[in-house]
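user: can you give me the structure for this one chain? tokens are fine.
assistant: on it. calling the predictor now.
[tool input]
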Amino acid sequence: MTSTEASHRHVQQLRDEAHRLATDADRAGDADERTRLQREARQLESDSDQESMMAAGDIYPAQ
């Protein structure tokens, strides 16, 4: 597996987890739990977007 393939796989895993958390948030009965899950899902989506852009060479990590 190349580093590009590994990066794509990791980005997809982050997106899958974000989707799962968003779905769990929609089903959560407790408002605090729903908010926590939504926040985690948004963070994972942001992380996956950033990692995807870094892999594509669109952005560079902060030094």
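assistant: here you go. The longest helix spans residues 31-56. The helical segments are 3-27, 31-56.
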